[in-house]
Amino acid sequence: MQFGHFDDEAREYVITTPHTPYPWINYLGSQEFFGLVSHTAGGYCFYRDAKMRRLTRYRYNNIPVDDGGRYFSINDGGDVWSPSYRPYKKDLDRFETRHGMGYSRITGERGGLEASVLFFVPVDVNAEIHQVTLTNTSDAPKSVDLFSFIEFCLWNAEDDQTNYQRNLSIGEVEVEDGAIFHTTEYRERRNHYAVYGVNAPIAGFDTDRDAYLGYGNRFDEAVVPHSGASTNSVASGWYPIASHHLKADLAPGESTQYTFVLGYLENAEDDKWEAPGVVNKAAAKELLARFASNEQTDAEFARLGEYWANLLGSYTVSSTDSKLDRMVNIWNQYQCMVTYNMSRSASYFETGMGRGMGFRDSSQDLLGFVHLVPERARERIIDIASTQFEDGSAYHQYQPLTKRGNHALGSGFNDDPLWLILGVAAYIKETGDFAILDEMVPFDNDESKAASLMEHLKRSFDHPLEKAGPHGLPLIGRADWNDCLNLNCFSTTPGESFQTTGNKTGGVAESVFIAGMFCAIGPDYAALARRRGDEAEAQRAEKAVADMRQAVTDHGWDGEWFLRAYDYYGNKVGTHETKDGQIWIEPQGYCVMGGIGLEDGKAVAALDSVRERLNTPHGIVLLNPAYTEYHVELGEVTSYPPGYKENAGIFCHNNPWVIIAETIVGRAENAWEYYKQIAPAYREEISEVHRTEPYVYAQMIAGKDAERHGEAKNSWLTGTASWNFVTVSQYLLGVRADYDGLVVDPCIGAEVGEFTVRRQIRGAEYVITVTNSGGKGAALTVDGESIDGSVVPYAAPGSTVHVTATV
Amino acid sequence: MQFGHFDDEAREYVITTPHTPYPWINYLGSQEFFGLVSHTAGGYCFYRDAKMRRLTRYRYNNIPVDDGGRYFSINDGGDVWSPSYRPYKKDLDRFETRHGMGYSRITGERGGLEASVLFFVPVDVNAEIHQVTLTNTSDAPKSVDLFSFIEFCLWNAEDDQTNYQRNLSIGEVEVEDGAIFHTTEYRERRNHYAVYGVNAPIAGFDTDRDAYLGYGNRFDEAVVPHSGASTNSVASGWYPIASHHLKADLAPGESTQYTFVLGYLENAEDDKWEAPGVVNKAAAKELLARFASNEQTDAEFARLGEYWANLLGSYTVSSTDSKLDRMVNIWNQYQCMVTYNMSRSASYFETGMGRGMGFRDSSQDLLGFVHLVPERARERIIDIASTQFEDGSAYHQYQPLTKRGNHALGSGFNDDPLWLILGVAAYIKETGDFAILDEMVPFDNDESKAASLMEHLKRSFDHPLEKAGPHGLPLIGRADWNDCLNLNCFSTTPGESFQTTGNKTGGVAESVFIAGMFCAIGPDYAALARRRGDEAEAQRAEKAVADMRQAVTDHGWDGEWFLRAYDYYGNKVGTHETKDGQIWIEPQGYCVMGGIGLEDGKAVAALDSVRERLNTPHGIVLLNPAYTEYHVELGEVTSYPPGYKENAGIFCHNNPWVIIAETIVGRAENAWEYYKQIAPAYREEISEVHRTEPYVYAQMIAGKDAERHGEAKNSWLTGTASWNFVTVSQYLLGVRADYDGLVVDPCIGAEVGEFTVRRQIRGAEYVITVTNSGGKGAALTVDGESIDGSVVPYAAPGSTVHVTATV
């Protein structure tokens, strides 16, 4: 069942009913100010940090789901409703939400009145814009009352949920010329405030929640819109809100338009007050002036469109499969940009209060946006590497505001170092900027301990060699990519986090997955060393990789698939010898990516085992059989009910590794089938099962052992975005940057018969026309000339290169 | 305006409308299992720890206020409503909530059907009982569908608000014989589960929230009660709930009754499962069997009544002022027991996730319940003293489950040590148990560092002497009683807690308030030393007190009142020399209690200044004039808007110190007037202004500088309860325990002309009949004989002593 459709030309998803199976959201903002907005106008916005600078309140885990947001209420002759359906839930003659690139437009029509609200955050502006258009679609004049509503939060979202002894006493506002200023806590150590204004005269306002809603009322019972008049309330403690009242007289067919601005402002410490107790509002007035006319607003909206059109031009495909095209050209890249902006902080599943920037997450996210914003990727690499320790290990997370490592979580996730090499290699392949390797980068944010980025990579490379176990495989530490496989830090204390409990020493827990990563990523380190003229280091690295491949062959093979790990006691994990958890997905994908078993049949055998034991129509599960009993020595993984999360759920993040592995062994049909299983556009028709947005990936889908097999959770903020984009763009469509040229090596199902990829890189454009019959090993021509191999050399900036590939 | 009335005979407050100005709640439970229940059935319950063992979900700061709780829905021929009014908000023909001692009974009647729900936690049972009675009050037969509803929480309430990546995947239940078992996380390191059962056959059940409510619906839109049929849903992840469906056929006038049991159970680690994946439910079945018949439930309810009748017999008054009687005999003592049970953890203002047991809080709370449960007071004293450090300082808070000090908050609140002396002295006066002073008590919970409790008191006594400043006054540390006067740990970092930021060293910030405390409490230390035969120590202590009185006289007097403090820079706080914050309440009360200025007129002058500058009809404000500008060097206090909280709000906790001081100087009318200003029963008629419950104290009332002057916040969990009980029982009514006898020294307004206090102490009963004409200095007779002074010697256990006092 569908609840909307794609509008590819407009780069929008169009939701045509409020009754989606879950709130379907979008993100506003591209620089420092961001908003989350659902298809019924739920959500919140913040400046930089969703915990410390949240402007509006949002209640997770609420009844009803997704209550609260930016609500525009209409009183049309006593009939009170909202174009966003919620909160009134009045039937609409027409409902439509268009989620586009950095904006959403919600339109409702009822009783001969159309109301449309465009939400966006302009480029480089710290404000949400709510442009409201009212149109009288009836044949009689109308006098309409319009009420805005947002609920201010106290700006530390965690405190907002816990400290009522303080928070109910501090709320303060000012109202001036129809603009509502939220000034809570401004008097003390803060120098920021919020404003909610509108570019039209107001008939009244409210800033006290109880005055607007009526004490004890639900959103849909709000007394002010029902009475048709604001009370001009001034909040004193309790719950400051902002609501404007506007009156519109509309002839038949007539439209009117208002621009509401919800902004964040800062003042200098010595310029906080314009009079004792009166906030200096000059910055806010300047902001409001930028949106004084609706034409100014339109111009800012056009500028946002240009920003996104420009971004999305780096990689496009044109094929006969519109689902493929919309994933590649629009939504997968868009999601990659959102993960760049948000990391794992604020979504409808992540509260914005918890996780910082992950070393591992950020390094992988980078793979998905390096071609879009290479200069920002460079900055991100330096930030990440700065949280590395001298021994090559790294803080697992760092704080976005301070860019300092998170001591509470610490280090000891032994896959972390290798991801840095992968990210840096991707950046250099994209840009040719080898100079980044000479950048001096601190360890542990300590400038006195700075070393070249290349030295950082060396320590990353050496880390799994130095932390190797009895089988010559890398020690796993607290966990590797699988956060819930905690082989050294399981705990029997209820409620204690597995990941942060003490990391046991003297253990022998080894990760076959990290070994696979080492073999896949190590060659890039060797290549970088060679290109810097350090042939000895390159050969040392290549020998280490070869040794690791041998160690996996000798000690990481279970007979039909790769083992997952050895536990703290030296027992195998992921073996046919145990009842549950016999085969795990991660090493099957990454060991093949690491070139292990390509010659002796292990690679194909492992992938056949995946197909036989792990694959489902909804994606490839993480392990099989699901654990039905609790095994504390494995850590968190077995704490989940069968089929959910790491206990045999479908992790959309690691499916791509299997897909890439299938392209490596040349099985185009398998790869293509696996891709389509989890790609959201292909799941649109089963939205009632999938539940989360059909335009972006979710982190996970319930596995075959779960009651709710096929149901997705945790959409938007997941490394799934970047890995699937890498997979489809670089391996299925087969166009990937390398050091000296663009590799063109498609391996995609025969049903995608012909397609054209346009790739802008290093200032040139490549137009690659592929004639595909499935399989692998394309014959290439470049500007009409046949070439050997699969590498199209980089052309001079400004040139356009025409490539044909025939598979 | 009133929203109900007191029923003193039943010891109940009767709320007669759902439309109170705030949720008016009650507490269930007396041992380890507790519930909070509002007059419209909102709230939640927990076992011991409201953060780690919360059974049901509750949303603070919600729209609508107080949505969610234990809801019973009735479908009477298609008319769906609830006796608790919420969530349906259907008009009721009759509504009544009776909050009693450890129970609440909510009754609603509509369309000829009466539904009444009795909520209580039986003594020594880890369960909430919901006894539902349906009565057909119409003259026609009725077929009624009844649906229960509670929403399970994941038992770590903080995680429940933040970790959706995990929590939405782990929900599990079992249903067996009509009982619903919540088993989420049981599979892993927990061995506890919850059950919700009923003693009658069910027609169906639901355990999945979306199935019960319908996805996206509000509580009042729940599809199951509206459809009249359960769906027998079994939750798998997302939101486990419990709902039963019962069918009742009722002839005119007929009643039926059901007992629902919501319980907490634990199993031994090696006895968790009755079959693979099936929880061992033996303990739950045993619990349900205790409530298999409604007669069993009635018997348990009767037992609860006896428990409270017994508790409240220790101190009673009978006067012509029913408000005075109900405060003293019922509600103030009840609130003291609640503060004993809850400390500051779980109320409608405290989320149950944050604050542990306070060293200072608990020591003062003890003053209010030591006469009710002396054996528990003894245990509490040992717990508190065990968190003291060897230098006399103390952890400011400790964890209730582990009884260990809270490292995050640490120590350095320099009033803390003295409160321990006050609590121990109160305990010994009540019980005569001097042996407690010989108990070996650890420092910092380290048994190897144990010393006698008397040694702990010595270190408490010496602490302010050793930590004295340049004026010979005690250093204040992070803060004294006033949490927001942070003279050594103010911070300019936005969002950083004043209380926990680094405690600056080398400062000279001194507290006149702690000096007053020392002078008031020090004599008790001297008395204890003397009674143990250590005359030298007694004299040393008395000299130190005398010296401190002199230091206050020399350096703590501003001319018309006592100074509050010296700040970090040595500047005076609470002086006429500054624009704002000229006079503070705390030292005025406590210095007089400490005997300072009684002879030279300073005491009366200070109290006159309080009356002139701080008193209002709603109570005495904390300081005046309110600070209108931010002073970082004073800490948090000036961060509040004028009139709120510590910035010139009315703190009901410190008003009693002024009242006691007024009795010390013999001004009965002032004392009595101040008492009535804040005592909730006297504010019942202005409930629309006061807003919180008229039967218990709130922590604070907005002061005269606030927009909402007279509005209370933070009801229930406040040291206000114990201090007001101490004040009214020991100083106004004037009956207080001393080491050798009962002091009878009333000082109460003349309008309370005659009254009788009955006091049970040390096994004897004292019947004290007072004839009062205001003023002070009663003439006493004991069993008909005149005695000198005010001390009635303790009589032999079992005896009844008749005392008359004439003022």
Notes on the structure:
The structure is a homodimer of 807-residue chains. Helices cover 27% and strands 26% of the residues of chain A. Chain A has 3 domains: 4-309, Beta-galactosidase, Chain A, domain 5, CATH 2.70.98; 332-732, Glycosyltransferase (Alpha/alpha barrel); 734-806, Maltose phosphorylase, domain 3, CATH 2.60.420. The mean pLDDT of chain A is 96. The first copy, chain A, is globular. In chain A, α8 (359-369) packs antiparallel against α9, α10 packs antiparallel against α11 (453-466) and α16 (655-664) runs parallel beside α19. In chain A, the strands form 12 sheets. A 10-stranded antiparallel β-sheet of chain A has the order 1-2-9-10-11-12-20-17-16-15. In chain A, strands 6, 7, 8, 13, 14, 18 and 19 form a 7-stranded antiparallel β-sheet that branches. A 6-stranded mixed β-sheet of chain A has the order 23-40-41-45-42-43. Chain A is of the alpha+beta class and 807 residues long. Chain A is built from 19 helices and 45 strands. Chains A and B meet through α1 and α2 of A and α1 and α2 of B. Chains A, B: InterPro entries: 6-hairpin_glycosidase_sf, 6hp_glycosidase-like_sf, Gal_mutarotase_sf_dom, GH65_N, GH94_catalytic, GH94_Enzymes, GH94N_CBP, Glyco_hydrolase_94_b-supersand. Chains A, B: Residues 11-290 form the Glycosyl hydrolase 94 supersandwich domain. Chains A, B: GO terms for molecular function: carbohydrate binding; glycosyltransferase activity. Chains A, B: One of its GO terms (biological process) is carbohydrate metabolic process.
